[in-house]
């Protein structure tokens, strides 16, 4: 299913562990609630970048579009939750995003470049996880997640192209740095299931 997005597959360091896929299927309610939070956070991140980097024209254009799409996805997830009687409630975040963001450099444009690279990893991983879940979901959820693949893959490309545009030099070394961190975050076990968690800890 991800064969249509070879750049994304090559970008990620690994596929999601089978144990995580099984965990997700067993925790559909948590999957939906956390997915809704992820879409809302993605829209918020895009808006924050628009406020911080008001002089970056291409960033403003791409992040404005991304924020609208992420909010639409939030509305779609929320509707599915309402239809299934799933309550939207507060949920603690996984260690994934913070595990990446704590390595962001503090000077510009390095800070912006790192933020864009991390955004690319988050979107690429989301796309990959939706894809691996589709065969295990009911028809309604499978159709919904299939509909998200194209936009998530485009968001990945947008973030990566912005990182390249504003770096002024090759970002290969920095991408590899975050790829190694992302790999560890994905394979290390977690106590709680989340969209971006690792596999469950052994009992």
UniProtKB/TrEMBL annotation:
Superkingdom, natural source: Bacteria
Molecular function terms, GO-annotated: tRNA 2-(methylsulfanyl)-N(6)-isopentenyladenosine(37) hydroxylase activity
Record SUPFAM superfamilies: Ferritin-like (SSF47240)
Gene Ontology BP terms: tRNA modification
Protein name per its UniProtKB record: tRNA-(Ms[2]io[6]A)-hydroxylase
Organism, scientific name: Marinomonas balearica
């Amino acid at each position: 299913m991800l064969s249509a997005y070879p750049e994304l597959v090559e970008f990620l360091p690994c596929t999601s562990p089978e144990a995580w896929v099984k965990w997700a299927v067993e925790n559909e309610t948590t999957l939906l609630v956390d997915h809704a939070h992820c879409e809302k956070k993605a829209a918020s991140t895009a808006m924050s970048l628009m406020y911080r980097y008001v002089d970056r024209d291409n960033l403003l254009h791409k992040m404005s579009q991304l924020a609208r799409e992420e909010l639409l996805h939030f509305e779609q997830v929320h509707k599915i939750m309402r239809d299934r009687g799933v309550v939207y409630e507060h949920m603690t975040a996984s260690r994934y995003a913070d595990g990446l963001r704590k390595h962001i450099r503090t000077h510009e444009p390095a800070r912006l470049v790192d933020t864009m690279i991390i955004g690319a990893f988050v979107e690429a991983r989301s796309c990959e996880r939706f894809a691996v879940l589709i065969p295990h979901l009911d028809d309604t959820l499978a159709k919904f997640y299939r509909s998200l693949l194209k936009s998530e893959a485009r968001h990945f490309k947008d973030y990566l192209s912005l990182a390249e545009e504003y770096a002024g030099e090759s970002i290969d070394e920095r991408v590899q740095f975050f790829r190694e961190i992302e790999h560890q975050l994905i394979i290390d076990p977690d106590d709680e299931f989340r969209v971006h968690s690792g596999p469950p800890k052994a009992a």
